[in-house]
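Blinded run. Sample ID left blank on purpose so nobody reads anything into the name before looking at the predicted structure. Input follows.
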Amino acid sequence: MLMDPGHAAENHGQPAAAARYDLRILRAMRQMIHYVDLYSKQLASAHRITAPQLVCLLTVVEKSPTTATAIGREIQLSASTVVGILDRLEEKGLITRERDRIDRRLVYIRATALGAALAQNAPSPLQATLANMLGTLPEKEQATIARSLERIAGLMAAQRLDAAPSVASSSRPVSTIK
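Blinded prediction complete.
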């Protein structure tokens, strides 16, 4: 039986329409994650770098020299996820790691010439079609979309949800409660 969104229904004390927003938001987020994962695979096939690797590399180029912890904070990934991505970037010759001479616990990350060139010539980590389509929207609408997504991310962070597995394009669950 379909619920009339205009009428209240007993669903955790929420009107029927409000009770469905969570499902709509979840579906939209799952679609976005799916498309980000597909684009990452296309990027890897065409450029031999995944979207999460490209985002890390761009951050290294922008913030160099930097640390894994600083990168994680900047791109909202756990330290262990960032270290795995950095391992792959280092294997590809795109970054170098160097221990601090005074405080040996610190490891500084820099882009190599190859990494800097790839970062300069790489496609957007956001799908080109999406980036182009967003550019056609009025600035006010772009700002509204950005604020809405940032608000959702903030709400998730407030609930201590870990979104790192979904961003890192893995087959693990989308989010887990800590």
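Unblinding after everyone has recorded impressions. The longest helix spans residues 16-47.
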